[in-house]
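Case 354 in the screening queue. Each case pairs one protein sequence with one candidate compound; here the compound is MRU. For every case the pipeline is the same: read the inputs, emit a complex structure as tokens, and attach any notable structural observations.

Predict complex for case 354.
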Amino acid sequence: MIPTVEWKNGVVSMLDQTRLPSEVVYRECRDYETVAQGIKELWVRGAPAIGISAAMGLALGARQIQTTTFNEFWPRFEEICSHLAATRPTAVNLFWAIERVKKFVQTNKDRSLDELRTMLVDESQRILDEDIETNKMIGEHGAAFISSGDIIITHCNAGSLATGGYGTAEGVMRSAVREGKKIRVYVDETRPVLQGARLTAWELMQEKIPCTLITDSMAGYFMYHDMIDVAIVGADRISRNGDVANKIGTYSLAVLCRQHGIPFYVAAPLSTIDFSLESGNLIPIEERDPREVTHILGKLQVAPDGVHVANPAFDVTPARFITAIITEKGAFQPKDIHRLADGSIDPEPFRIKK
Ligand code: MRU
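Case 354 output:
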């Protein structure tokens, strides 16, 4: 699996996903400002990968603070946290990772700053390693819902590229294939940024998982003709009541699935659940540059000059359209997801078995 983001000898190396699939180019980020730029400009994207990058950005930022006292270090570190937090508003893993690293710094504030700087690199690496392990568990739980011969539809990219590695929704597909199941994946191209066409199709082809690329508007056609068995997507933020924010177009896909009696699964780690939000209506939705809509990949203009454009990057799928949310702790009905908030509750009685 090709690395998405890595700490390499004091720099954060990011695969520039805006250049895929035509070029595999890594950008070297030597300061937290460049990491923030990379998140904002989508060199790295996908909720877990954004969180990991932010944690590595904080490890870089800690090295940029020139002081020997914690009292001077902390307010400057908090400013760096705010800078990184201001990059993208929807994927909660960004804020989750920043909070985790802030707590880690506070817990270790009695260490020397040099020690702390080294520990922050290790902590960001731990976030990455844990994410890969988590994805594999999601994959294992999710594969139980896939039968050999299934045709799966997915939207956007929730693969290795969107995470530390392995992927959430694509992780389920990987695990199913590793279990010897034969699958085919219909990949929505995912306008306007084309994560499906550029990233998911590329990733699945690298893994030799059979796939068929379609435009977003073709999904209903293939469902109507009984050619789709199951939908699996990732998530950027899940509220307590099981509503799911994911790439724009996910809601339309879920509604189509309901109309055609197709199960609709969301695969995501617990770090994507925002237990502080009662419902999906409270999830902030990123509005991106109109140029993403008027131009194909910033190049070919496909709309008249001056046209009014809306470009919400995510939508919210209400819990009632979701068959199950598959996490590292198992698969749950969306209405039960809030039970995971308190890590001490045994989720076993609420797990959906297959
Ligand atoms: O704008 P992006 O590419 O960062 O959005 C990512 C998504 O919405 C993905 O669908 C994904 O499921 C969330 S990350 C696993």
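Case 354 observations:
- The two ends are 29 Å apart (CA to CA).
- The longest strand covers residues 11-15.
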